[in-house]
Please model this.
Amino acid sequence: MVAILFNGNLVIGYHLTPDIDEFEKSGIEFIIIDELPEIIRVTPGGFVVERQGDEYVLVELPEPEISEQERIDQLESQNLMLMEAIADLYELYLGAG
Model:
């Protein structure tokens, strides 16, 4: 017996040893099934599982939109980290030579 937890049609989790009374008291949407579908057990990152009737399907999560300035800041930060890594490698090279 497994409980699948929902928010609307989206699977938000599951519980292998469900306490049905506790779920009912909390108001969590759930169903009890005999066996957990594999698609729920091994949902890949960047996806959620949606219930469509008796079927479960993967739905890709949208990429969060970031502003142009946020993207510039992100790239500048990555550039700084790379420059620091190159400097560290250069120091190691000079110390070894």
Q: What stands out?
A: Strands lie at 2-7, 10-15, 29-33, 47-52, 55-60. The mean pLDDT is 92. The chain has three helices and five strands.
